[in-house]
Amino acid sequence: MYDVIIAGAGPNGLLMATELALAGVKPLVLERREEVDVSPKANGLVGQVNQALDFRGIYERFAGTTQPPTAVPAYPFAAMTLGLAGIDRNPMYVLPIQQRRMEELLAERASELDVEIRRGHEVRSLTQQGESVTVRIATSSGEYELEAKYLVAADGGRSAIRKQLGIGFPGITDTSFVGRAGVVGIDAPTANQETGELDVPGHGTLRPMTFTRTEGGLFAFAMFVPGQFRVTFLEWTDAEVPGDDVPVTFDELGAAARRVLGAELTMHEPPDGVPAMLGRSTDGINSRQAERYREGRVFLVGDAAHVHSAMGGPGLNLGLQDALNLGWKLAATIKGWAPDGLLDTYDTERRPVGERVLMHTRAQLALVAPGPNVTALRELCGELLQDKANVQHIADLMSGADVRYEHGDHELTGRFFADRALHGDGGLTRFAHLMRGARPVLLLMNDRSDLADLATGWADRVELVRAQPVDHAPPAEAVLVRPDGYVAWAGSAAEGLERALATWFGVAQVRA
Ligand SMILES: Cc1cc2nc3c(=O)[nH]c(=O)nc-3n(C[C@H](O)[C@H](O)[C@H](O)COP(=O)(O)OP(=O)(O)OC[C@H]3O[C@@H](n4cnc5c(N)ncnc54)[C@H](O)[C@@H]3O)c2cc1C
């Protein structure tokens, strides 16, 4: 019997697999597709997920640098500019990277950790019995069954597993607009092939990865490879739209550009034989969340648990941190040291975070619609965004920096423990490097041998590190950080530490 079967080798299923493998549990990943999906999806990682992936060394692979994540000086919120340079704590870490590349690199990491990924194997159905889940799998050469202790459904927004379990997916499908998109070539002088900027009459110089809202609709674009522009036009319209059997042409895309931008934008086939992948969508945007993230031995992660508009790019900030939250809890349960109820905290911690993402993506979609009322609302928002406190609030919301799972005595408790430079027995390091093994860390920042003695009862599970911050005063005498980077406890009192160790990491070993 397998410990865990993961359905879906998208980014969230793959990260889940690496988390389990790091914790010593062997998962099996089943992916319906034969090859990595090449359709255009995420263009980057936005927010706290960058720091969380830095804790595993995955950010380094994605970014191709050993430098820690960097925050951007400005970021779009509902096609308005959030000026972040002046705020006290800028949490908008952004890494431009295409989803396809993320999936390739995560699969590479999974294979280094000996994770088996079976491509072309589709989970068709499941049954749960006492201590296990039986999964029926279809391949091109027939069907077979496997048994596992747990099943993780990372099978995307249309999750067949969620549907089979009868877990409701309430929410809305906003069909008030038509989308047109493609990968196109745009010539100079309109396009700067090096910077990816576009000079559009009436709009000045538009930077890539920004949104332009007009009374005609919304225009977004990016340039990932010099000369290849990914463009998207959204129009709120009742006008008749050609059927799915009618291919989108460059003329149709150009007409959308004229309506949205009120200007001529000449687009043509992209260079180097790259497919233009012109498309039209009237399906609308789903904004839905699963009623519960767990049903017995089955857990939903990522898009299987929540879908929403891509405004602000929050999808993987949310989904990948679902995987980081569930991974160590599931591994602890399989290893036999999880305290009662640990697995249930996956739902109680992550569902409210998903609700907040649905809230701000819906708000952003409402704020980019055309019409004088929305224009007035945007003016008002623009005024509010002159106030640094409001910018901080929105940036914390969009990045996930405002997530706090529990409110303990200390300000840090329940929050993500940000990376910092440390000086300890082993010399200079970063806190992020202490988290590479996906184990809980007790960071002692003062000479408290009583706390160190206490923690020996959990030495098989919890890493003890003595180190001091290089640039700042210690935020507490000691901090106990969970494998997902969240603070289980901070402070100085031995009773508090003992309680937190038992709450999160189970019963102490009997000392010899
Ligand atoms: C146009 C667009 C732009 C986006 N931009 C961003 C962005 O900039 N930043 C961001 O963070 N997010 C963005 N997103 C969202 C992001 O792409 C998703 O959140 C992400 O793909 C979710 O990953 P996942 O692993 O949960 O699901 P998916 O990526 O959907 O992966 C699910 C996998 O499961 C497989 N599968 C399905 N059913 C089965 C089955 N029964 N058995 C086995 N395998 C199965 C599928 O083949 C697939 O490989 C964007 C999405 C779109 C569509």
TrEMBL record:
InterPro entries: FAD-bd, FAD/NAD-bd_sf, RIFMO-like. It comes from Tenggerimyces flavus. Keywords: FAD, Flavoprotein, Monooxygenase, Oxidoreductase. This is FAD-dependent monooxygenase. GO terms for molecular function: monooxygenase activity. Residues 2-360 form the FAD-binding domain. Its cofactor is FAD. Gene3D superfamilies: 3.40.30.120, FAD/NAD(P)-binding domain. It comes from the Bacteria. Pfam families: FAD_binding_3, Rng_hyd_C.
